[in-house]
Amino acid sequence: MWRKEAPPPSCGRSPSPRKRGEEQGLKPGHWRPGARWAREEKPSLVRHAGETAALVTAHRDGNRDVLAALCPAARALGLEPGMPLSKARILVSGLDVRAADREGDSAWLARLGLFAARRWTPRAAVSGPDGLWLDLTGVAHLFGGEERMCERILAFCARLGFAARIAVAGAAGAAHALARFGAKPLILCPSGGEADALAPLPLAALRIEERARSAAIRLGLERIGELLAMPRAPLQRRFGGDFLLRLDQALGRSAEPFEPIVPEEPPCVLLRFLEPIATAEAIAEAAAEAVRRLVPDLAQAGLAVRRLVLICERVDNIKQYVEVSLARATRDGAHLHRLLCATIATIEPGFGIERIRLIAARVEPLGPRPIEGALAGEAPAPDPALLIDRLAVRLGARRLYRLTALESDVPERSLARAGPLAEPAHWPQWPRPVRLLIPPEPVEQVMALLPDGAPMRFRWRGRSHRVAAADGPERIHGEWWRRAGEAEAVRDYFQVEDEAGARFWLYRREDLSWHMHGLFA
Amino acid sequence: MHASSSKDARLAALREEISAIERSGPVRDKRALLPFGIDEVDSRLAGGGLFPALHEAAAASLAPGDDAAATLFLAALAARFSRADGKMGQVLWALARRDLFAPGLALAGLTPDRLIYAECRNDAEVLAVIEEGVRHGSLAAVIGEVGRADMAATRRLQLAAEEGGTPALMLRRWRRSQADPLAAPSAAMTRWRIASAPSALLPHEGIGRARWQVALARQRGGPPHSWLLETPDAEARLALSAGPRDRAIEAGRLAA
Fold it and tell me: Is A126 helix (H, G, I), strand (E, B) or coil?
């Protein structure tokens, strides 16, 4: 939200509303949002003078590497963005160089812009590779005024680990220039004071082409103030292009396009009732109607639902939430309705429900699907995903799962839960029991022929067993990288069969105590 | 004389009627039949294999080893249904306890990509999940661990399994009362009692392929029987133990 209607100037009403914008920007090549080293290596960002090398990121430009972003220490050493990396290495020995991650940076900037559009202002836009426009028109007072709001935004960015700079001005161009080339990280440009504020800034702040800028510098024009003092016609004649346009945009004399970020709203249906409804049949009918309206919207957008939320707003202004998760994205209205109906019993209608809101809280893209088996005449094979959805409503989605292998030799750590339709990893083909005792149970009166051999006889759960055959040991070490206490832990597993044919999985710990861990079939 | 011949005729007519009823059921589709692949076992099963219907198995005793054997027996049956016709059928396992160890099941052919777990709070929920699973018809098999299930519940499951064409495999677990879980009446097509048996001693150190005493305690349309089988391999194939082949059936094991 980059324009704001300021109080009309004292001299009278101006034909177009005065514009006031804010640019939250970062000096080019300075600590940019999402610069890789600002994101991933937070601890290393604390650098004490003289302790470590200056940190820069570099990217490929044509056939040479140039600096993309610098830490303050590197900047103090005289390096600047755009400098060839080879030159920087000559100037500063022991330079710490990382690869620049432009996609990552812009993804972070887009996330920040989306957050700004949801949290701070309805009109926010990404500005270049390193800045955001926020239109403060009519929103600053909600956050305690412009200065207070900017401080809060700076504090928010600091919590995320970004060093941000903010300038508030009446024109987008002026805010852009002041945010990047201003003296302070927070600049509030008074209304109408853009020309004075911009005068001491270099020409680079104006977003003009490199060719025009170098031509102006050759003519001895270095500051924006010097341009302002000159007649306009010769400037246009000499530099042409959008030179004057950029100058006018900075001063608020000409308009600038603004492409706001539009946060995506989940597909949603709202039903209002003339009379409050309270019976299960009425709610089921209303849910059916809501699904009937939602499905065409989804089909048109090419989306399918993974999670559906039904909000029933009661007459006493209490909201009842019902949620349905789906194993696979679908927009099958009958299936969705059946799942919703199974959850109606959990709704307490109270004195009645006035409004029903059905939200596709999580959606996934889904293209048109071929019809299965209809041409040949046979019925299509039922889909297990539909069954999983129904069971998930009955049991709860967390109670339906697959088990997948984890890379651990410790039996109780070798599996993890995954989604019911996930593609699980397989376990190695070591002998493993069918039932695992958690926790392992102590085994008493173990007799073994040799100190490190298989047991000959043991007592477990009050019954003694004589071992007829045994296999082992399979030695499993403690995982010292998880816990220091496991550095010494060792388990020697034995598979033993007693005289009745029952098979057990026993292990001997490093302290020579025996435990029962599982039962083979 | 005249009376007895009319009696015989009536009996014959009734037998004819019963067999007609038995033939007409939806489970009598021979294509859905799943043989064990062991002639000695298949020849004793009515129909020559397992129909997609309700099948029950229980451990022969309260010993934990027998319980593990019954568990793996059902897992192997489910894996065989899942692998029938070279398909990749999904198996749903309704758990009541959480001591099942998936790597052990994978060794019997029930690999993690064919198995979905449903954690249930009590027997009633297990029965409901089995019923919904078999009725839907999209799964290769449904396994449930049940402590108590009465005649009405098993009848319901049996009808649902026939309707959906999906086998329901029920593990009847021993309860604290120490009553044989297979003593209660049930509508299951077959009821199995599994006990671990001593394996053949190897000529060297180590432990051989485990063996089970598999008793078919009851089956619809056939007499009970008992075999000594070797535990399933990675393809879920059971094998007849090479040792005491064709030995006499112990009468005690057949009291169902």
Answer: strand
Chain B residues near residue A518 by CB distance under 8 angstroms = 101, 104
Q: Is B173 on the interface with A (CB under 8 A)?
A: no
B166: nearest Cα among B72, B252, B84: B84
Answer for the pair B102, A405: CB distance below 8 angstroms, yes or no: no
**CATH (residue range A46-100):** 3.40.1170.60
pLDDT per residue as tens digits for the range B189-236? 999 999 999 998 888 888 989 999 999 999 988 899 999 999 999 888
Residues of A in contact with B87 (CB under 8 A): none
Residue ranges matching CATH 3.40.1170.60 in chain A: 46-100
Q: By CA distance, what is B108's nearest residue in A?
A: A434
**To the nearest whole angstrom, how far is the Cα of B73 from the nearest Cα of chain A?**
8
Q: Is B11 helix (H, G, I), strand (E, B) or coil?
A: helix
Binding-face residues of B in 74-103 toward A, CB within 8 A = 75, 90, 92, 98-103
**pLDDT tens across A79-111, in order?**
888 889 999 888 888 888 888 888 988 999 999
Helices (H), A92-183: 102-119, 145-160, 172-181
Q: How far is B14 from chain A (nearest CA, A)?
A: 37
Beta-bridge partner residues of B92: B116, B142
Amino acid, single-letter form, for residue A137: T
* Overall fold of domain A268-365: Dna Ligase; domain 1 (3.30.1490)
Structure pTM? 0.68
Closest among A482, A441, A435, A480 to A461, alpha carbons compared: A441
pLDDT per residue over B78-134, tens digit each? Answer: 999 999 877 889 999 999 888 999 999 999 999 999 999 999 999 999 999 999 999
Residues 6+ apart with CB under 8 A from A412: A436, A438
| Residue A347 DSSP class | -
CB B158 within 8 A of CB B139: no
pLDDT confidence of A62, banded at 50, 70, 90?
confident
> What does DSSP say about strands A96-99 and A55-61: parallel, antiparallel, or unpaired?
parallel
How many helices (DSSP H) and strands (DSSP E) are in chain A?
Answer: 15, 20
Average pLDDT value over all residues in chain B: 86
Report phi then psi at A52, rounded to 5.
-130, 175
| Contact between B165 and B51 (Cβ < 8 Å) | no
Class of domain B27-191: alpha beta
Between CA A204 and CA B235 the distance in angstroms is: 72
Q: What is the mean pLDDT of chain A?
A: 84
Most confident of A309-313, B28-32, B86-90, B177-181: A309-313
Q: Is residue A130 within 8 Å of A163, Cβ to Cβ? A: no
Enclosing H/E stretch for B24: helix B2-24
Domain ranges of chain B: 27-191
The whole-angstrom distance between B203's CA and the closest CA on chain A is 11
DSSP secondary structure letters along A220-251: T--BHHHHHTS-HHHHHHHH-TTHHHHHHHHH
Question: Which positions in chain A touch B105 (Cβ < 8 Å)?
Answer: 434
Collect all residues of chain A within an 8 Å Cβ-Cβ radius of residue B115: 402-403
CA distances to A150, B38, B60, B176, B194 from B248, in Å: 91, 18, 19, 33, 17
> CB-based contact (8 Å) between B228 and chain A?
no
CB proximity list for B87: less than 8 A, separation 6 or greater = B140
Is the pLDDT confidence value at A220 over 80?
A: yes
Cα angle A127, A129, A135 (rounded to 5 degrees) comes to 20
Q: Are A497 and A478 in contact (CB under 8 A)?
A: no
Q: In this structure, are strands A400-405 and A353-365 parallel, antiparallel, or unpaired?
A: unpaired
ipTM attached to this prediction: 0.83
Q: Say which residue, B93 or A379, is predicted with more confidence.
A: B93
